[in-house]
Amino acid sequence: MEQMAVRTLHRNPLQAAWLCGLLAAQVLSCPDSCSKCSGPEHDQCEQCRAGWTLHNNTCVDIDECGTELGICPTNRYCFNTQGSFECRDCDPACVGCMGSGPARCRKCASGYSLTGSKCLDIDECSDRVLACHGLDEICTNTEGSFRCDCAEAFIHKDGVCVKKQQPRVQDKGLFEDIQDDEVEVLQQMFFGVVLCALATLAAKGDMVYTSIFMGAVAAMAGYWLSDRGDRLLNNFVRGR
């Protein structure tokens, strides 16, 4: 079997080279922290990568945050990572910090005060001195600040709260809200009154009034049955 493997390697030099390289890589594979080593174990390092230091043949992470290497800009703090470091933002309550959270502030930001060991938001709306001065304003506390909103039915205008102007309501006519069925009743009443008056005059025997009465009945009946008469009466009743 071994002779067959040797023959295969002799016949295929590329495969032999690949196998030898794989074996060499396994033998000389160093830990991630090592740039040079004598073996694959962590205590077999001979030289370390950047961010690490050699101690008893072992590469140990350098805490840059404890040295001058970990200098971060204002209002950011140093956070150590494996082989390096990061600069992270301070809490909004801080002006400069030594770590994350409102308990690691060097100084409290505006709108915050030191309460115990933490910089906490000041509720300006509970302080009569800092609260909104306008009688028509409502104080709303926000994180690190506050705002003044106009009360209901008021709006901001030129920096002050003024009462909203209510839209003027146009005066309605006497019959503006009258319904269609009510119009029909009024039409019938109107015709009834006119016909009764003419009938009374005709009953006196005056031929002139009798003729007028008969003509009025015929005319009103025609208008009653026509769309034109209906429109005229509608306009009359609605005062248009």
Give structural attributes.
two-stranded antiparallel sheet; single chain; 5 helices; 23% strand; disulfide bond; NOTCH1_EGF-like; repeat; elongated; 240 residues; 4 domains; alpha+beta; disordered N terminus; membrane
Would you kindly provide a written description of the structure presented here, covering whatever features stand out?
Keywords: Disulfide bond, EGF-like domain, Membrane, Repeat, Signal, Transmembrane, Transmembrane helix. It comes from Dissostichus mawsoni (Antarctic cod). Pfam families: EGF_CA (PF07645). The chain crosses the membrane at residues 208-226. Residues 29-60, 86-120, 124-162 form the EGF-like domain. The structure is a single chain. The chain is α+β, with helices and mostly antiparallel strands. The chain folds into four domains: 28-61, no CATH class; 71-121, no CATH class; 132-164, no CATH class; 180-237. The protein has five helices and twelve strands. The strands form six sheets. The chain has a two-stranded antiparallel ribbon. The chain has a two-stranded antiparallel ribbon with strand order 3-4. The termini are far apart. The relative contact order is 0.05. Residues 1-10 and 21-27 have low confidence and may be disordered.
